[in-house]
Amino acid sequence: MRPMLKPALSRAWRDRATLQFGTVRKHARVVDEVNQAVAAFLELLDGTRERAALLDAGERLGLGTELAEQLLGSLEQGGLLDDAEAVQQALGGYSRPQQELLGPDMASLSLVHPAPGEAPAVLQSRARARVEVRGAGRVGTAIGAVLAAGGIGTVSLVDCGRVAARDCSPAGYPPTDVGRLRTTAAREAVHRAAGAAAGERHRRTPAGGPPPTLVVLAPRDGSGAFTGAAAEAQQLMRAGVPHLYVGVLEHLGIVGPLVLPGASACGSCATLTRRDEDEAWPKLLAQLADEGPGRPRTPACDSALATAVAGLAALHVDLYLDGGRPPSVDGWCELSAADGMARRLRLQSHPECGCLWQSVPQPRPAAREPMRLS
């Protein structure tokens, strides 16, 4: 381990002998009684020295090995240290341009996962993850780009047709992509966001391989997140693949539920709950699912709202892949274009759905008596 002070934390003097690391109260820490020797020792925590070398340096500075050890322990316990060697190894799996792009992401991870070496381990786990985004419209393409920029190893977008003007957004397709095949343009958008060189942005994702770690259902027409995506969600449930519903419904951005098959409420639970509140909902849902080209309309999808929804959805995916439990599990989040407010609504498993039945221990059948022959 090569200890280093986390570069994400600012440094400011509260007085001549008290140094504060960080600004946000949750992460801010104070080191008091900072004399010249302690200040010099802190400057050595740049990730270029092993712990033993730092202790030797502390002895030469007049701190003494014991005090230097105590200072290192206090800094580590306070979440101020990271392991530069682990950081280097985690970034080593990416190209040089990608490493530079991921610097701020690594700095953020070091605060969310404070133990030395913990953030690099999380980034390495992201590099092994496979996320499939089904729907490459204004929201879906932006989700894919943000995930790729955050270090997800394999991000694939699944869609058909050609890019329309309403699919473009600052975080996804540029207007110059209108008319191109969505599969090609979306792939390039993801590779561009990940920092791939211009000559590598056209490469295809290899077919086959293990199933996705997670699937994002983000149809171009947001209402499809609760209609046309239902059959896809059932297949994912049977395969045990976690999946996240995302879309913009009129003026509301929706993120969730994030379904953990057998462990959380699913999309069918949401449909059945809505049916309990509105008996006409199944009839309306069937009409929405059958809405075709004979009934043209322009789906509402505010560009700022779509970008915010894509960012929130990508954050929830990252949280799940990093080992957390996003608020879209057993619930969903709404973003309103009318008032800019974000809300979280709870979702309980519906008793008629059965999505959690397999997770409930079943009573063992009573043993049968052996058949008697007379």
TrEMBL record:
Q: Which InterPro entries match?
A: ThiF_NAD_FAD-bd (IPR000594), Ubiquitin-activating_enz (IPR035985)
Q: Which domain of life is it from?
A: Bacteria
Q: What Gene Ontology molecular function terms does this protein carry?
A: ubiquitin-like modifier activating enzyme activity
- THIF-type NAD/FAD binding fold domain: which residues? 127-193
* Full protein name: Bacteriocin biosynthesis cyclodehydratase domain-containing protein
